[in-house]
Amino acid sequence: MEITIEAIKDKALAWTDAFFDTTTRNEVQTLLESNIEELKESFYKDLEFGTGGMRGTMGVGTNRINKYTLGKNTQGLSNYLKKTYPGQDLRVAIAYDCRHNSDTLARIVAEVFAANGIKVFLFSELRPTPELSFAVKHLNCHCGVVLTASHNPPEYNGYKVYWTDGGQIVPPQDKEIIQEINDLDFKDIQFNAEPALIELIDKEVDEAFFEASVKNGSINAKGRDELSIVFTALHGTSIKAIPEVLRRAGYTKVHIVEEQATPDGDFPTVKSPNPEEPEALAMALEKADEIQADMVIGTDPDSDRLGIAVRNSEGKMILLNGNQTMVLMTRFLLDLWKKNDRLTGNQFIASTIVSTPMMAKMAEAYGVEYKEGLTGFKWIAKMIKDFPEQEFIGGGEESFGYMVGEFVRDKDAVTASLLACEIAAEAKASGSSFYEELLKCYEEFGLYKEKLVSMTKKGISGAAQIKQMMIDLRENPIKELAGEKVVRIEDYASGIARDLEHGKEEKMDIPASNVLIYYTDKGTKMAARPSGTEPKIKFYFSVNTSLDSIDNFNATEARLDDKLDQMVQQLELN
Question: Fewer CB within 10 Å of terminal CB in the chain, N or C?
Fold first, then answer.
């Protein structure tokens, strides 16, 4: 039911109460008097936890990131911790990224925890998100919080919660925490901290994290001193970790893009600090061509996603997608485990429902289990927690994230960057390359090609458009894709999979999520999914065919690209 403007104004008026600080009251009053459209956007709903926690535009209002919305989250989380661990001395870790106000908001979050009698370990400066995941376990904390909006535009910030295992919150904790938050009024927030409960952390945790990253990401590859790498932090937190981890692993030819090395929430040299976007790595690619580097690595602001560019068979730098780096890293780890006689059948690799089906193909070939979850690394972390009797080798998702082993329970661009360099160095030393090793994967397991189409729909009207698009896909299901017959539809909202060829339905054992996946009789896959953290709807396409020879790669890839383009045009997503 749509909220009325009168109800929105009533919500906003509550923010002119004396409980709120003078700046907040004045900003709300200005919106009430002269900017009704912005008032509606700021108060028409409450920010909610999505696949990556809470993320939104900074500003005043219930639909914005500010000291009160984050304070209410933290108060609810404090109440939940006390109920879950009665009588225990509670401990939390807090990190933050390079975004505007992240340091201030992190301090406020720390103060609310401390006001509730909870011990806080607060990083003294910005740090990568994977280091926060590591710190939760390293410091024996009950939970952790990181202030970040990942690769979103500069006006965004966010709040991600991690549990005792170092993974993000999952059912049932997420819903129980949300209920605690929803039961609160803003006036229930305790802001008056006990200063002695806040302890600043930095070098000691850094040292442990660097050591663990090198241990998990290194295979003592040959040729490290011959691999030339261009690295860009895209103005984010990875500058605090990746150059040092690569140095400790023995890489001497690491060339940093200095113009993008200083953390800056404005991200002045890029349109978007997202390594999924080729434009974001333009400066690094230019530098790579200048010095004839072998590889480019770029990370997002909180250093959980990494983009990789390598030279193809013609010597041209190309940006790989998340599926490509994921399958090659996984193949490399599987080979390593096999070489060391560690594959006993009790291991697993993992990915997500919108990522490449090639992961399942490789798992079968190596005799390990393949586990698949909803979008987001919290589900992979949950697999590790739910199956302690099995060994986790590695896993990732199409959105440029990878996790090596289980010492970090979230996507980790620090360790994954090192692993990528190890693969490239080892390949170069043996007369091959990162790219050629990828082609060998395609020759063995089939050529899988993916494409992502992301459509941004902002604000109230945008949310309504996205909702209607999913309704249309459900009520008027697609019957064919690029001339191929749709034979199976999986609706993760209802939990029902429909076998159209045999007229059967089956219940899927997976948490509900607003995702639809279509499969054709030729092995093509198309998924539609509204983003949980951005005003976007995403369409994921996957096609595949056999590759009889690496020599035929370009022609075979062109045919698959043509099929992908046909589907995009068919659905009018251009």
Answer: N
Pick 533 or 477 by higher pLDDT: 477
User: 50: pLDDT confidence band, cut at 50, 70 and 90?
Assistant: low
CB 158 within 8 A of CB 170: no
Residue 52 has pLDDT above 60, yes or no: no
Residue pLDDT, tens place only, 539-573: 999 999 999 999 999 999 999 999 999 999 999 99
430 is catalytic: no
Which one of 3.30.310, 2.60.120, 3.30.1150, 3.40.1350 gives the CATH number of domain 447-570?
3.30.310
Is 439 within 8 Å of 520 (Cβ atoms)?
no
Give the residue among 99, 167, 101 at the shortest CA–CA distance from 130. Answer: 167
Do 563 and 482 contact (CB within 8 A), yes or no? yes
Give the burial string for 423-442 (b: 16+ CB within 10 Å, else e).
bbbbbbeeeebbbbbbbbbb
Sequence ranges of the chain with CATH classification 3.30.310: 447-570
Q: Out of 2.60.120.10, 1.10.10.410, 3.40.120.10, 3.30.360.10, select the CATH number for domain 208-445.
A: 3.40.120.10
DSSP 8-state secondary structure symbol assigned to residue 518: E
| Contact indicator for 456, 537 with CB cutoff of 8 Å | no
Residue 1 has a pLDDT of 53
Among 133, 150, 218, 351, the one annotated catalytic:
150
Beta-carbon count within 10 A of 496 CB: 13
